[in-house]
Amino acid sequence: MFDIDESFFREETRDGFTISEMMKRAWGCHMMTLNEVEKICNRHGLKYFADYGTLLGTVRHRGYIPWDDDMDISMKRKDFMRFVKYAGEELPPPFYVSSLYSDDKGPGVIAAVINRRDIGQDKSLNEFFCGCPYICGVDIFVMDNLPDDTNEREAFEGLYNVFYDASNRFDELKESGELYEYLPKMEQLIGRTIERQGDLKMRLWEITDEISMLYMDDDTEYIANMREVVVDGKKYRKSQWYKDMFILEYETGTIKVPGDSDSVLKYIFGSDYALPRKFDGQHDYPFYGEQKQWLETHL
């Protein structure tokens, strides 16, 4: 049983930023969801790591960055594929996993474990989820192996980029007619026919993710979340950063982090990541803004 003392949900100010009671309850909901992820990982010997703002918050604040409102973790590909299988069988309702490989097909290549399907209508669920009526999730970013040869790695990145771009801009390309000009060229790149019947957009996302798994069984120097590479212009992470795993305090509990969190955080945020920051408004804060509006008009 995952339990958070009611005192945790009191509004408070950290680093000059006020965290509302409802945001604290949403944090609690995220931590409950992570707890379900962790139980499956522990049961089957799988590893996850805090990532992005969640890793920064863990190291710099021993919990959430005060103005952060989501939770991010990463998994290496082999662990992720096993996790999706086990999560589909073992996650207790109303939790569920959303991914390309789940009954609940997720959008694109980012997966998530989500706490519920409805917004606030079920009062018993609201109470169960720390008094939070909103749909919350833990995003999972998958880390894939990259070829060691530089030329091969560049070709791999280029191939992934072609399919990611077509999948991501599917509606735009379909409306303009360009999609059906691209498809024969894409088929030449992978040496097989792309089935046009059914959900073509989902099929392209699936091929995109299949490409990212080409080196899954290799022991390579570098790993990457390929979306991060092609969308954000990031380069590659080193496998050795994730060789070990440590457990650190996180709010009222703990969370797992890479053995070389310092290198990971420098890679993501720069060498000065540990310096105090002020709220920069980069996220649509709070994440539940639209859900709140919907709830106000339907109750």
Describe the structure.
- Strands 3, 4, 5, 6, 7, 8, 9 and 10 form an eight-stranded mixed beta sheet that branches. A two-stranded antiparallel sheet has the order 1-2.
- Helices cover 44% and strands 17% of the residues.
- By secondary structure, it is an alpha+beta fold.
- It has helices at residues 21-44, 52-61, 77-90, 123-128, 150-168, 170-176, 179-190, 200-212, 226-232, 261-269, 289-298; strands at 12-14, 17-19, 49-50, 71-76, 96-99, 104-105, 111-114, 137-145, 222-224, 237-238, 245-250, 253-258.
- It is built from eleven helices and twelve strands.
Uncertain parts: none
Shape: globular
**Largest sheet properties:** 8 strands, mixed
Helix content: 40-55%
Number of helices: 11
Report the span from N to C terminus: 30 Å
**Averaged pLDDT, please?**
95
Over all CA atoms, what is the radius of gyration?
20 Å
Q: What is the N-to-C succession of helices and strands?
A: EEHEHEHEEEHEHHHHEHEEEHH
Structural class label: alpha+beta
* Residue share in β-strands: 15-25%
Kindly state the number of beta strands.
12
Give a nutshell description of this structure.
By secondary structure, the chain is an alpha+beta fold. Helix content is 44%, strand content 17%. A hairpin with a 2-residue loop joins strand 11 (245-250) and strand 12 (253-258).
What does the secondary structure layout of this molecule look like, with pairings?
Layout (H helix, E strand, L loop, with lengths): L11 E3 L2 E3 L1 H24 L4 E2 L1 H10 L9 E6 H14 L5 E4 L4 E2 L5 E4 L8 H6 L8 E9 L4 H19 L1 H7 L2 H12 L9 H13 L9 E3 L1 H7 L4 E2 L6 E6 L2 E6 L2 H9 L19 H10 L1
Parallel strand pairs: 4-8, 5-6
Antiparallel strand pairs: 1-2, 3-4, 5-7, 7-8, 8-9, 9-10, 11-12
Helix pairs in contact: 1-3, 2-10, 5-7, 5-8, 5-9
